[in-house]
Amino acid sequence: MDEQQVGLDESLRAIWQNHTGNTCLKLDVFVDAQDAHLRRFRGTAARMLEIGVLAGGSLQIWQKFLGDDATIVGLDIAPATARNAPDYKVHIGDQTDSVFLAEVAAESGPFDIVIDDGGHEMDQQITSFATLYPLLRDGGCYIVEDAFTSYWDEFGGGLGRAGTFMEFAKQRIDELDGDFHGAPTAFTRSTTSVHFYKGMVVFEKKPNEPPQYMISMDGELTHRPMNVGPGFADEDPSPTDDTTGGGPA
Ligand SMILES: C[S@@+](CC[C@H](N)C(=O)[O-])C[C@H]1O[C@@H](n2cnc3c(N)ncnc32)[C@H](O)[C@@H]1O
């Protein structure tokens, strides 16, 4: 029985170190980054979906980290995992089944946090992201653990290989910056950042407008749209009597 008492000021790493509940498996390099991205949800009624339940220990750890007001939901293809985590709702199904994923989101979401620690195969990670990221709440965070399987042949990976999750994630960088090459998408407008850690990718979702220049001059702050198109790289964003040097900051 896990009787660990946790305050909301305790780090995720400390919670891990002191965990006495069900077994949990995670690469140590993920922990501090996850703490940094997810601590804003602590003490809130956040809803988290974790793909990949196994022994159920990670669901317990997330509950301790986020607090009693949070709702932690699991998803796994193996029915036995639901019995490992009787205190949690565990949806049984395949993370490559986008219809099933949408049903999970409709029934137990909308989610503020999704952690993909499932089968780690390329189509699993990509289909889950493509289905669940648009359904993630604004202000939410989507984490793909063990993205290093993109380099491993037995998971469908290979360094630089087309169709891997890492190649998919790298393309999202250009989409994040869609305003700067004239091709913004729904992903551009809904994503503020993509973070690459060792073996893990984190997406921060929040509505955003096209970037504007902020021009501070003589104690006055003005905004000016950034024009994207032929010659825009030569554009001087500052007022006509500029003495500041101008040019893209
Ligand atoms: C790495 S374990 C999860 C570990 C757990 N999150 C933890 O931290 O201890 C991966 C889990 O993903 C599940 N899984 C594998 N393929 C899946 C799929 N296609 N859909 C959903 N779950 C899958 C496995 O049954 C297994 O329980």
Structure description:
This protein is of the alpha/beta class and 249 residues long. It has two domains: 12-205, 3-Layer(aba) Sandwich (Rossmann fold); 211-249, no CATH class. 29% of the residues lie in helices and 19% in strands. It contains eight helices and nine strands. A seven-stranded mixed beta sheet has the order 3-2-1-4-5-7-6, with helices on both faces. A two-stranded antiparallel ribbon has the order 8-9. Helix 5 (98-108) crosses helix 6. The longest helix is centred in the C-terminal third of the chain and has 12 residues, at 165-176.
What keyword list fits this structure?
29% helix; 9 strands; 249 residues; alpha/beta; single chain; seven-stranded mixed beta sheet; Rossmann fold; two-stranded antiparallel ribbon; binds S-adenosylmethionine
Ligand inventory: S-adenosylmethionine
Mean pLDDT: 92
CATH class of the largest domain: Alpha Beta
The N- to C-terminal Cα distance equals 56 Å
Mind telling me the C-alpha Rg?
21 Å
Count of helical segments?
8
Order of neighbouring strands in the sheet with most strands = 3-2-1-4-5-7-6
CATH architecture classification of the largest domain: 3-Layer(aba) Sandwich
Q: What overall form do the CA principal axes indicate? A: globular
CATH topology of the largest domain: Rossmann fold
